[in-house]
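Tokens as discussed.
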């Protein structure tokens, strides 16, 4: 039902907000930055995002990076797949798997 869907959405927003605020790694690709806006944790962050999502993310108070991917503390975001290899290295580094990330990128 709609009520159950809304309740589940609220749970997901709270979980994401808790992860961002506690500094846990959060990885977003393309238009996924919209979930930061929905969870009200986009403000003050710098995010790479797909063109179609940028306006809403900026309206939520985030800055849109010109780079294909961005690391803003524990928040990692990718606008598109052009820099996926470098992005994977950054994600693995954030998760503590730097050596494996460098080997995979080689």
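Sequence:
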């Amino acid at each position: 039902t709609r009520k159950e869907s809304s309740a589940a959405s609220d749970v997901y927003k709270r979980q994401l907000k808790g992860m961002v605020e506690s500094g846990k790694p959060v990885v977003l690709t393309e238009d996924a930055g919209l979930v930061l806006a929905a969870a009200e944790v986009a403000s003050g962050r710098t995010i790479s995002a797909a063109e179609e999502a940028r306006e809403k993310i900026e309206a939520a108070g985030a800055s849109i990076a010109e780079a294909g991917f961005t690391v803003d503390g524990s928040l990692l975001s990718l606008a598109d797949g052009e820099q996926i290899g470098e992005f994977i290295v950054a994600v693995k580094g954030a998760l503590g798997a730097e050596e494996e990330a460098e080997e995979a990128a080689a």
